[in-house]
């Protein structure tokens, strides 16, 4: 789960990181009032889960409260990478002397949280990595011991020669690491970490991504979820324990297991079709999951045919068959349905389907080709 | 033969009385796996009953701790079906108990838990498979985990995969075409897991009965590229690969660090290219494994 900049900053502030004061506004008038209260030049920053906010015009410097009102009016409601801006952060504009990058990510290869720091901070850190990799220092942390003082100092000295600044940066490393672990992050970054002309260290932007598997034991973090920033169908799916990602095609797919779901989408494309979605009903599915899956898929007007591809292991195919029958009785389908199922209890499933006027295939390629043909307006085989 | 598990596997099931644990323990007993013990704290002294492949009643004693189970029964392998919040502790308990192989089926284990667990397990010289994996099966000998036994058959092909049901699909297609397997291993799709493709490829290369390997990867990360490099440098046996997610949309970005640290986005195209460069067979569809493997067994 992604946190907004203002949420990440609140957490970092709690762990002692110095952050310029700021608050959230949802209307231009609020932005104006906040700028007045802060009593100085401010930044108005779009709060959406997308990179490149600045380049999209979602981050503006404002000299006066009236200016803040006007800029907020332009930013609120604008779309950045398809996401509508509902909130802006109004925050004191820091004087910037130098900009560094500090991030931690759980690295698959090293199997530990890894610090990445660079004195070349700001928005183009990827370019730094690509063109001048020597300007980035990587350091893996053994979580059983935590980040040691000497490690933090090594990172601090990589950024600043001056011992005072190096010490201050080392402290930020410790604070960021503590926040990262306590929040259950898979990524946390401060970019830029600014040194002001007065020699003060400030986190001017912050980003945190929380491991979804941490949310059950961290209800306070789950409470930060912003559903308005996600597609409605994806929120709906998550509530019913389905994994759903909407795509642009017209073949609706219902599959059990992420790998098989991706392979099914690939096969749809292989045979000349376009998948309308990724939908994983997971293991041990009950009929109700199937009912919800069908409802979510049929709400997409682009869908011209629906394909079920179920390989029963933990999933009992008779549960899926019962779900299909229940769902289509309650809401008759307006588009054709192609069913492929095999595995656990397939004889029972086939019987249920046949008795209710459905046919099903045991072969994945055959079923996918059939669904693609129907989505293109072809006749049922 | 097989890799990692065989006729001599003596299994202890952690979470044997839970919903998933009890269901799959029965399935494993029915397949012929030697389930010698179960663990559920507080239920020590009870017994778990199942049925052997020949229809006879079989029984496994239940213990309070894995250490008790291992010292009483000589279990050498553990399988874990406990909820995610308890999985890290269960893995460490197993690794400390003296078993050689720990298979963690549990899905949803926080990745930061795994950063503690991984070095703990490695330092004890124990092999961990998973978490979030379907386990493994050596057809005709033993099954540990949740892979359906009836889709497998004994034969010369090693199977290793990052996903669950996709593995079933491909194993099923191989079996239907008369191509059996030495072992099928699901390594799981979590960011930090105990056993990777290379571990399995190296084991298959050493196993005298394995004549060819089928490998199923997914988009994301660089494990498949590294596996391809291993195939090129260290393997004489033919390997056929597949990547799921060739048409998946580029994910919403995980910040700057995500893109940088993996060095690349881990797209299907670059993985398939790595397969080709390593001289591996490339299956465009699951069904293509059948012909590609057949040609390499001749």
CATH superfamily of the largest domain in chain A: Succinyl-CoA synthetase domains
Rg of chain B (CA only): 19 Å
Please, what is the average pLDDT of chain B?
93
Order of helices and strands of chain B: EHEEEHEHEHEEEEHEHEHEHHEH
Description:
The complex is a heterodimer of chains A (381) and B (298). With 381 residues, chain A is of the alpha+beta class. Chain A folds into 3 domains: 21-92, ATP-grasp fold, A domain (Dna Ligase, domain 1), CATH 3.30.1490.20; 98-222, ATP-grasp fold, B domain (D-amino Acid Aminotransferase, Chain A, domain 1, 2-Layer Sandwich), CATH 3.30.470.20; 232-375, Rossmann fold. Helix content of chain A is 38%, strand content 24%. In chain A, helix 12 links the parallel strand 17 (337-343) and strand 18. In chain A, helix 10 (287-298) crosses helix 11 and helix 11 runs parallel beside helix 12. In chain A, 49% of the residues are buried. In chain B, strand 12, helix 7 (223-234) and strand 13 (239-244) form a beta-alpha-beta unit. The two termini of chain B are 20 Å apart. At the A-B interface, strand 7, strand 8, helix 4, strand 10 and helix 9 of A face helix 4, helix 5 and helix 8 of B.
């Amino acid at each position: 789960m992604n946190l907004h900049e203002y949420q990440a900053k609140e957490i970092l502030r709690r762990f002692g990181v110095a952050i310029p004061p700021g608050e959230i506004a949802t209307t231009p008038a609020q932005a104006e009032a906040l700028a007045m209260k802060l009593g100085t030049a401010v930044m108005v920053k779009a709060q959406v889960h997308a990179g490149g906010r600045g380049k999209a015009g979602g981050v503006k410097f404002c000299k006066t409260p009236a200016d803040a009102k006007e800029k907020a009016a332009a930013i609120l409601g604008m779309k950045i990478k398809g996401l509508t801006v509902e909130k802006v952060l109004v925050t004191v504009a820091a004087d910037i002397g130098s900009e560094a990058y500090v991030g931690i990510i759980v690295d698959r290869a090293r199997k530990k949280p890894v610090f990445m720091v660079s004195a070349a901070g700001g928005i183009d850190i990827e370019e730094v990595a690509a063109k001048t990799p020597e300007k980035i220092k990587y350091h893996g942390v053994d979580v059983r011991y935590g980040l040691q003082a000497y490690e933090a100092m090594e990172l601090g000295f990589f950024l600043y020669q001056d011992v005072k600044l190096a010490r201050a940066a080392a402290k930020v490393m410790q604070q960021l690491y503590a926040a990262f672990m306590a929040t259950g992050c898979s990524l946390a970054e401060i970019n830029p970490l600014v040194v002001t002309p007065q020699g003060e260290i400030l986190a001017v932007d912050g980003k945190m991504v929380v491991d979804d598997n941490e949310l059950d034991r961290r209800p306070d973090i789950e409470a930060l979820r912003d559903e308005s920033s996600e597609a409605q169908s994806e929120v709906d799916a998550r509530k019913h324990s389905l994994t759903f990602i909407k795509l642009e095609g017209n073949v609706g797919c219902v599959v059990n297991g992420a790998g098989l779901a991706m392979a099914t989408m690939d096969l749809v494309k292989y045979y000349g079709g376009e998948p309308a979605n990724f939908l994983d009903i997971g293991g041990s599915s009950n009929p109700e999951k199937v009912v919800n899956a069908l409802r979510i898929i049929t709400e997409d007007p682009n869908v011209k045919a629906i394909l079920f591809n179920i390989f029963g292991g933990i999933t009992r195919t008779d549960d899926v068959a019962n779900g299909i029958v229940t769902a289509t009785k309650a809401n008759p389908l307006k588009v054709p349905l192609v069913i492929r199922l095999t595995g656990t209890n397939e004889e029972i499933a086939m019987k249920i389907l046949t008795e209710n006027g459905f046919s099903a295939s045991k072969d994945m390629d055959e079923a996918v080709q059939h669904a693609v043909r129907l989505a293109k307006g072809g006749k049922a085989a | 033969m097989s890799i990692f598990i065989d006729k001599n596997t003596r299994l202890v099931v952690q979470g044997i009385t839970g919903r998933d644990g009890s269901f799959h323990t029965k399935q494993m007993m029915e397949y012929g796996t030697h389930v010698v013990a179960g663990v559920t704290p507080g239920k020590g002294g009870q017994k778990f009953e199942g049925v052997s492949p020949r229809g006879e009643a079989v029984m496994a004693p239940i213990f309070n701790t894995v250490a008790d189970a291992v010292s009483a029964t000589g279990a050498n392998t553990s399988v874990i079906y406990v909820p995610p919040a308890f999985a890290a502790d269960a893995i460490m308990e197993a690794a400390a108990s003296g078993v050689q192989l720990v298979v963690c089926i549990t899905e949803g284990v926080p990745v930061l838990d795994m950063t503690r667990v991984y070095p703990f397990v490695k330092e004890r010289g124990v092999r961990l498979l998973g978490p979030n994996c379907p386990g493994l099966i050596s057809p005709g000998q033993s099954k540990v985990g949740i892979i359906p036994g009836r889709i497998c058959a004994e034969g010369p092909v090693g199977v290793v995969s990052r996903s669950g049901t996709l593995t079933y699909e491909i194993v099923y297609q191989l079996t239907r075409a008369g191509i059996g397997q030495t072992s099928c291993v699901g390594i799981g799709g979590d960011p930090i897991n105990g056993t990777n493709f290379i571990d399995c490829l190296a084991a298959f290369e050493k196993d005298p009965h394995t004549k060819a390997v089928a490998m199923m990867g997914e988009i994301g990360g660089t494990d498949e590229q590294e596996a391809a490099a291993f195939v090129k440098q260290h393997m004489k046996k033919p390997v056929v690969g597949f990547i799921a997610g060739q048409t998946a949309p580029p994910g919403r970005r995980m910040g700057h660090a995500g893109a940088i640290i993996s060095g690349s986005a881990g797209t299907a195209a670059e993985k398939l290219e790595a397969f080709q460069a390593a001289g591996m067979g490339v299956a465009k569809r699951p069904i293509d494994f059948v012909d590609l493997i057949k040609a390499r067994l001749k």
